[in-house]
Specification:
The chain is an alpha+beta fold. It has two domains: 66 residues, no CATH class; 95 residues, Immunoglobulin-like. It contains eight helices and twelve strands. A six-stranded antiparallel β-sheet has the order 3-5-6-12-9-10. Helix 5 runs parallel beside helix 6. It is globular and about 55 Å long. The relative contact order is 0.14.
């Protein structure tokens, strides 16, 4: 965890960081893993499980050697929401939202300039089993109204405040919740 918070922190390094996943490349070079190469390149699960911790730490993901369509979907969401101009606050900073589920962590992206959302919550289940999102939000600390509009960007669907408590998040999966 410390490596993400220091070694791979773009603000500290002065340049954006990006992960180059090597699953399919590794599989092609290791005889006992050759049969996994196609699965690594085409199965969205490998990409989602790679993206999940990267969103929590504001590290970009390359589409090399994993499912390109899944990573492209993330890039389109990030471009559409203007992530390049966002300020990032990691879960370890106490950004005003937490989960009652021990393996669910939340980092936030927020904007000072006009953007499609005031805040986006990167909600990640870092455990292996499904967990309720069970979010507790300090709306005032986030700087948004209690009756703000909520939208899950990855699934492209509207959410209610009740959904923030009851939504089940699969192990090693994420949600991107836009708050207008």
């Amino acid at each position: 965890m410390e490596q993400y918070q220091s070694e791979m922190n773009g603000k500290i390094k002065g340049v954006g960081m990006q992960l180059l996943p090597q699953y399919a490349r590794s599989a092609s070079g290791i005889k006992s893993m050759n049969h996994l190469k196609k699965d690594f390149e085409t199965n969205p699960e490998w990409a989602i499980r790679t993206i999940t911790p990267m969103l929590l730490h504001d590290v970009g993901v390359s589409a090399a050697y994993i499912d390109k369509s899944t990573v492209s979907k993330l890039w389109k969401i990030q471009d559409g929401a203007n992530f390049k101009d966002a300020e990032f606050s990691g879960y370890w900073t106490g950004p005003g939202v937490k989960s009652n589920s021990s393996k669910v962590l939340i980092s936030i992206y927020h904007w000072e300039k006009p953007a499609p959302y005031k805040v986006i919550l990167a909600v990640a289940n870092m455990g292996r089993s499904e967990q309720p999102a069970a979010l507790e939000i300090d709306w005032k600390k986030l700087g948004v109204s209690l009756d703000s509009e909520l939208h899950e960007l990855w699934l492209d669907k509207s959410l209610t405040k009740k959904d923030l408590q009851s939504f089940k998040l699969k192990g090693n999966h994420f949600m991107l919740i836009g708050i207008k």
